[in-house]
Amino acid sequence: MRRKEASRGAVPKRAVRRELLKIEGRAVEVQVKLNPRARRLIVKVHPASGEVSVIAPSRRSLEHALDFARGQTAWIARQLAHVPSRVLLTDGARIPFRGKEHVVAGGGQGPVSIEDGTAVIRVGGRAEHAPRRLLDFLRRQAKRELEARAGEFAARIGARVRRVTVRDTASRWGSCSSTRSLSFSWRLILAPAFVLDYVAAHEVAHLKEMNHGPDFWRLVRELVGDVKRPQAWLRQHGPSLHRYGAK
């Protein structure tokens, strides 16, 4: 989500400073950043962390960045109201895995395992390392599943995937590059299988149609059938997937 204002000029290097902005009676930290690639002043609120930042394209516009953000306090407050409370990946936490709630527990024999017939994720080793260990496990599971599903979907439409990567993206669930590389949010492994399948099919369809025209949606429906159900799920539950993290 963003707000913008035109401003541009020659810029040397990047810079970051932290300021405090009063929003609805409380002080909120704002990162003011200089980015020569930006084309205008932009205010952003990270949907998962609630981090507020102002991006300035030049040192001259950097001087006005905080004033620009002050003019957007009502918008910032609305975005912050939608930021979900954090859930740390620690012992006792309840997290979704493939759409089903699981309980995180210590005492695992290996790094991370899911007990057969239960909804318990066991994390071995020292407690302070558990969040990072579990996060790495979830990312590996996401990559394995998304590589498999994307490969299957691509074969069905006569396309080829060059590479699949998983990242922690805030604004999109997946993307497809002109080099046939697909990128996905690792958090899709938290969602039900029909949601992960839909996002994988969506990006694979872009290997044939780099647009959202009728032919593109025909391909997606050919791969997964119903698209409205996963779209509705993501609208309703997608933001809550950003609650989970190692810190």
Written overview of the protein:
- The chain has about 250 residues and is of the alpha/beta class.
- It folds into two domains: about 1-80, no CATH class; about 130-245, Zincin-like.
- It has seven helices and 14 strands.
- It has helices spanning about 60, 65-70, 75-80, 130-155, 195-205, 215-225, 230-235, and strands at about 1-5, 15-25, 25-35, 40-45, 50-55, 85-90, 95, 100-105, 110-115, 120-125, 165, 175, 180-185, 245.
- The strands form four sheets. The protein has a five-stranded mixed β-sheet with strand order 1-4-5-3-2. A four-stranded mixed β-sheet has the order 7-8-10-9, covered by helices on one side.
- Helix 4 (about 130-155) crosses helix 5 (about 195-205) and helix 5 packs across helix 7 (about 230-235).
- The radius of gyration is 21 Å and the shape is globular.
- It starts with a strand and ends with a strand.
- The model is unreliable at about 1-15 (pLDDT under 50).
